[in-house]
Each structure stands twice: as structure tokens, then as C-alpha cells.
Give the backbone structure.
Amino acid sequence: MTTTSGGPKAGREEDSRPSPANATDQEQLTEAAALEAALAVDPSLLASSVGEYMRAWWKRVRGGDTGVLPIVVGLVAIVIIFQVQNSLFLSSGNITNLFIQASVFVLFGMAEVFVLLLGEIDLSVGYVAGVGAVVVALLVGPVGLPWIVAVMAGLAATTAIGIVQGTLVTRLHLPSFVVTLSGLLFFEGAMIWMVDTFSPTTGGVITVTNPVIADLVNGNMTAIEGWITLLVVFVAYAAITVRRESRRRSQGLTAPPARLTVIRLALVLLAGVLLVLIFNSTRGPGVGFSGLPPVIPAILVVLVAFTFLLSSTRFGRYVYAIGGNAEAARRAGVNLALTRTAAFALSGFTAGLAGIVYESRLESISTDIDGGTYVLYAVAAAVIGGASLFGGRGKPVHALLGGVVIAAIYNGMGLLGLAAAIQYMVTALVLLAALTVDRVARRGRAFRSADG
Amino acid sequence: MQALVDISLAIPRGQVTALVGDNGAGKTAMIKTISGIWPPDGGQVVWDGRVVHMHSPKEATALGITTVYQDLALCDNLDIVQNMFLGHEPLRFGTLDEITMELTARQTLDLLAVTTVRSIRQPVASLSGGQRQTVAVARAVMAHSKLVILDEPTAALGVAQTAMVLGLVKRLAEQGVTVLMVSHNLNDVFEVADRLVILHLGHLVVTGPASDFDRQLAVEYMTTGRAQRASTAPASA
């Protein structure tokens, strides 16, 4: 026997005694392995031309590794349905509104991605965000500290909460479900207590009048500022992409075909130009204001930072490793407790960001914030976008996509005047549909690869 | 209760030593001791001519002893390169140096004549059992291990896969790496081992060059702890 590549996984199930059937089995298995390999590798690393890339990509989709395709198709379908029902859906005013609504869901989703990657869950993000928002509102309002100090204190508080919850999970080996469920209850109480104690006369609501915090969501950049922002973002993205690929090529490693990179960059630029045009146009008759809300570039900065953290640092690599096989990571010398605790800390930090965006949008924070529903949207955004509940798979961009989908449903149904009851049920069905598509695609893949 | 009693074992450099024995003979206890998981109650370990004390797998790894376990300890969701460097990734300006990792991984796999993987950027979940074993071994080679302990490397592998892994073991020894292989399968043992060490109920019953044994003799030692054909047997340890 030569070193034939056997079937994926199936090789291990095989009977080790030689049998006449074995030779043909091996051939089939080799074919299966080749298919599986083609599925598993990013098509851009195997293709040498754009056509080849498209074929490799399609093969991969058909093989069950659908990537972000279902979510993009789903989003397009949602947009078409709402646009047919109400032509205001794609108006510039509503699109701006939709992205603002999405920003909170996206941040909650990103908070959840850090812990989902470990195979854990954080049910407390909703009220942790509430605590962060209340700390900021109290410090910037009644206490009168500068906004930057208040924001840093708020984020420090939510990060500390993440560290405490992470420590309980990692050092005491308590299930994250229970720890963060306790967190959900505890921090709802803590939030109400803080408001009642430090702002007893305002009826459970603290208004945020600080212009910087309020303008994060409600402010508008001038048209020129919008274009400059796009230019900076695009040039940075293009420079990083081109540099990375040319370094790979110069070392003789596989890199995506140059033309593909050009097409990708062109599409990104096109999307950016369209969005800035939409944001810069007047939001409907009589509204009179226009411009890019600062929260949009702010979310992009967070997205880039978290993507970098998860894909280009040891910490990020270890988060994926622990989600994939914690025992293997431990044997490789990874500090499990530290990595896990840091992931919970980041979840808390990001929840704090979500809380600040939430209060910026309302220009106040109320003890009525529905942290219980927000945590479900957080998990839903991550999972609809493509993160796995079982660890090891997911990216910050998945939370972005999932958050936009949830916002589109929320926004569209509000536009149609449907009751909250209907909105909840439809969101639930979309979540189920997203999971079903993922599961069915993967099952198809398992069949094809002769997985026993 | 003692798992291992009064054992004296030499593992020659650059050779493949096979550790065989029936279930409960003490093979696992033996490798756990050598890999620092269960420090011995008595006796000493001499490594590279000096006495060493290993109290944890980390200390063993630092000495150049790596154990590749049956259950492999790979992360399915990471690709081959990521698995090979897990825990000791090279950095460039504080970020992961993917290019160095990929080039080094490629070199190591070439050294071991691994040609069956299509791309070293595919997740190990898509690999066959033999290929996964290869990645685990390549990981040890890349860490500049001097002694690689393989725990049942061919268990649950098919024919072609087994041949692939045994070829890998031979090339490992050719690279000057010392291999200690635990196995049930005498076919595999006789194919690659330079030396045999036979354990029985916690005692080392015999050790010698593999050419001194035939299958029947080995089976007798493994099952009864002694051989009737004493005249043909190599000197007992």
C-alpha cells in the first residue's frame, strides 16, 4: 500500500483487515477526501483565476459550507418583501434609521461572539449594558464628569463584571449558563438600585444631555466628513489587503488571484459610496437633516479591532482552539483560565459599548430597558450571522450581518405597523430558519463525505 | 498498588523502540511516567547522560520529550498550520506570523514526506485518521523533540492509513528522532521497530533487538511473561 489519502474520518472506521473490497473503497475514499479538502479550503487559496474561484466557491456552497450566503440571500429576501409592502422601506431616511437600530444589535451580537466561540454563553449582556449605561449617565449627568471619563468608567465597570463572571466560570468551574443567568437577574437589580439611589427623583429615567454622547447616534457628519471617512476606511482596508497578499506571494505561498482582490475591493468601495450617498441625502421631505451618523464608523472601528484581535493574535487563536478542543489547547500549553476570563471580559466590555450606543440613541437610560430581550437578540444576531452555539466557529462580522437582519425585521415590521407580538414571532422564525439552513447544509455535507 | 515494578529500560537514540504488552501490562503507566504525567515513586530517569526529574508534562516537553496520544489532541476547527503551531506561535510585531508558520509547517511536512494533504490551510476536521496522526507527529518534530512517544499510533486506522503512519515512524527515526511506540499490533511493531520491550503485569520481562524475536515468541512473552523456548530467547533484562 502506498500512502494513499483515505477518506475523511471514514478511514478510522474502516476494518483494518485487508479485504477484496478495500481497494475500491480506498479509491472512493480518496475521491471523498479530495472533495472534502476542496470544501474545507478557502477557495481563494486554491484558485488561480476568477472563474476558477467562482467554481471552487460554488462547489463549496453545494458541499454544505455555505459561509455567509444564506444570510445574504435571506437579507435580500427580507428587503424585497418589506419594500414591496411599503415603498418607504428603502428610503434614505429609513435605511439610516435601520442602520442605527442595527448598531445596538450588532454590538450585542459581537459581545456574544466572544463567549460563543468558547462554547460558553453570556445571558447577562443585556443588563450589563444597562449597568454600563447607568454608570455613564450618572457620571456625566448628576456627577458632572467629562464624557470621556464617564465612558471609560462605564466600560471599566462592564469589563470588571465580565472578569468576575469569567472567573466564576473558569476558576470555580460553574456553568456559564447559570453564572450569567444569575448575572442577568443581579445586574437588572443593580441597575435599578443605582438609579433609585443616585437619581431618586427622576422616575427611573436618567436623561443624557451631554452633546458628545447624544451625537454619537443622533449627530450627523457633514457630507465632506462622510466622504473623508469613507476614503480613510477604504484606503486602510485596501492597503492591508494588498500588502498581506503581496507578502504571501513574495514568499511563494498561495494567495487569492489579483483580479479577484481588485473585484472585492471594487465591491467594497461601491457599497461604501452607496451608503455614504444614502446617509448624505436628506431624510425625507421636511426632515431637513442629513449626514453619516458617527456611530456607523464607530461600529466599523470596533469590527476591525475585534476581527484583528480574533484572527491575528495569540489570544484570538487560543479562543478558537479552546472552542474546538479545550483539552488539545490545554496540552499545547494554552492558559485556558486566562483566555476564557479575557473572553468574558471582552464580552462585558462590548456589552458596555452597546449600552452607551443604546442610551445615546434615546438620549436617556431607563430602568425599563429590556435586557432580557436584548440578550436573546444578542445570541440570535450571532447565530443568524453564522456563529456556532457549540464553540469554535464565528467571527465579529457574523454579528454585524445578523444584527442587520434583526434590525431589518424589526424596522420593516414597525414600518408596516405590526404589533410587537408579531415582531417577536417573526424574529423567532427567522432564527429557526437560519439554524435550519445551517444544519441541513451541514448534514448534506456529512452524507457526501461518507462520515460514519 | 504498583503499576510498574523494578523496571530498567534504555531507549537508544535515533531508533524505534516498541513497547508491547497485554492490556494491564503497564504500557500506559510507563509512557505517563516518561512524559512527566505520573512521576515515579522511586528510581531515576537519565536523559542525555544526566539525571532529570520531571514533575509535569511541561517539564518533559522542555527536555524534548513529546507524547502523541491516541486521541490526538488536535483542534478540528483549526487548520493544519494552526494546529502545528498551537501554543508556540511565532509573532511578528506582536501579531501572528502566518507566513513563517506556513513555510515552516510546509518544510516539516516535506521532511516527513507528507504529500497527501491538498492544502495545509484546510481544517484538520477534513483529514483522515492517518493524516491527523501525521499532523500530530509533525507537530512534535517541529518542536525539535528528541524523543517522540507514540501511543497506539495505528489503532483504528485502515490498511492504507496504517502504512502511511508506519512510513512516517520510519522517516522520523531517519531524521534522528528517537521513537518510543506503544502498540498492540505486532504486525506494525515488527515492521518498524528496531528494539522490542515487552511488559507483563507491571514487570519488564524482556528487551532486545526486534530481529531476535519472532511473532510467536513475542506473543508468549506478552501473555505469560516468559518463554518456553528459553534457548532461543534474547537475554532477559
Observations:
- Residues 159-174 of chain B form the longest helix (16 residues).
- The domain at 16-73+145-232 of chain B is CATH 3.40.50.300 (Rossmann fold).
- Chain B touches chain A through 49 residues (CB under 8 Å).
